Amino acid sequence: MDDELIALAERHGVATHYEDAGQRRVDVDADVVVAVLAQLDVDASTPGAVRRALAAPRPEPRTVVLREGDVLDGPGVAALEDGGSVALPAALPPGYHRLGDRTVIVAPRRLPPPPRTWGLMLQLYAMRSDESWGMGDFGDLATTARRAADDLGAGVLLVNPVQAISPTTPVERSPYSPASRRFANPLYLRVADVPAYRDADAATRAAVDALRPDNDTELIDYDAVWLAKKAALELLWTRVEHVEPTGELRDFARFCALAEVHGPDWRAWPEQQRDPATATADPDRVAFHAWLQHLCEQQLAAARRAAGAMAVGIVHDLPVGVHPGGADTWAVRDAFAPDVRVGAPPDAFSRQGQDWGLPPWRPDRLAEQGYEPFRAVIRNVLAHADGIRVDHVAGLWRLWWIPPGESPARGTYVRYDDEAMLAVLTLEAHRAGAVVVGEDLGTVEPKVTEALHEHGMLSSAVLWFQRDYERPGHPLIPPAEWTGSAMASISTHDLPTAAGFLAAEHVRVRAELGQFEGDVDGEYHAAGRERAELVALLEQEGLAVDDLVTAFHALLAKAPSSLLLTSPQDALGEIRQPNLPGTVDEYPNWRIPLPVRLSEFFTDARVRAVAAALAAGRGR
Length: 620
Description:
This is 4-alpha-glucanotransferase. Pfam families: Glyco_hydro_77. GO terms for molecular function: 4-alpha-glucanotransferase activity. There is one protein chain. Helix content is about 35%, strand content about 15%. It is α/β, with parallel strands linked by helices and about 625 residues long. Among the domains are: about 5-55, no CATH class; about 115-155 and about 155-300, no CATH class. A hairpin with a 2-residue loop joins strand 8 and strand 9. The N and C termini lie far apart (about 55 Å).
């Protein structure tokens, strides 16, 4: 690759080489760099085009980032967010201000430390109760928050993403591919908690109740749940005063109304409907979908109130992106690189790389817009939350872009302004009084974790991965040596449960699906060795090994990490993990309900043993 192309790529934050999972340098092919630059509207197709692009004047930064107490140089007058103004030079208060055509973001230097507590990480859809309709709902979230605090002494609940889907069938099951990250998923509404249901006459309530789907299916049937709830809510909608929505809610509701007619992906709609400026939607359906969002807000707020006795409360999970044909890319498309897919480069787990099928933000457009699209996402998630977990938090620094027509291996990293992204996250969390957790697992640059801690945010620690990778054999690190600035757990939704790990269920399933290139016996041997290493660590720590699931939690409780989390799946000894990466329909991802009803969960002896182990650790 010639020096001029390298210089142009550097100017626009496109990597020409990177370090792989084995700390080896990998050079990116020149044509991949050219293709990614094209997605940023930079022509690098010929040497002459590269030279012209390099010669073009560089625009002034449209966003200025400061920390609280920093002085913004003058001369000039800054227009403050609250409507006031300040002559420069001056230190501005935290907020989003204007200096001419530039946005000035002033964020607190760091967030206050969160309380030390323990809690549950929920796959909410799996928490079925006597009141829910075929899957867990916002009412179950409220019940879990209240009873986890009162009965078990828990102080935090981490919830899988509950962001909005397209209101069509088949329903998108993955919570990590929402249509919008700015709105909530009405699939989780509890119909009986809707005010119109409580106010309805007996005949209407009976008609609604008759729509309730089977609550005891072996796997969760999302389509049946959504069709039943939509029909029930439409019955109640006839009894509600219709209000025309405005602003971003109107745009989202219009998308939903159009998706009902034309399908979930706006890229396949008739040309007129693809553009919000020319699209036309049924006003009644627009108002209906806006009403559903108001109901979601009410029920999410009720769940948060139910968590009032918790030291932290409810932490919501933020997916790394949105569906390429969903509501967010329809309404705020200028902020996205629509033809790019986000993923990951090849590594030991995925030798061909990963393609997550999600369009990334354009870093240049975010800066031009004062990061408003990102601000809206964080602000809306935190509207009814006590904290936020940012999935793949390294994406605030860089994302792996796969250009059109290429395989995941033929991509490269594109850099973001991490100072601006962290400033938005810090400021919004400060305003909401929320804790922030960054999911920094896997191949992540050390500066990511360091910056999280510098800003008062928590990183992630998972028992399976807590090893000293600088020493031969990568020995396990005793929990007492883990960082305190972390949310620690035994596993995650993408990894084996505690019981599944002990039974090598993850090896059996992957072997059955043909996911291993090498010898399956070798995989079983490796799993057995890891199991033996963990048992040895338990014994080294003086813990009884007669009940290994409880023992793992007692081991976790020795960590100084601010938050200790277990999942209901881990506590109950469920061997099936919620999601198996690399599969779609080959494995029942996101469809496995808990083996017990919610009412039975809090009295289960296994759950109480795990809760006692974690609570004992917080008492130290």
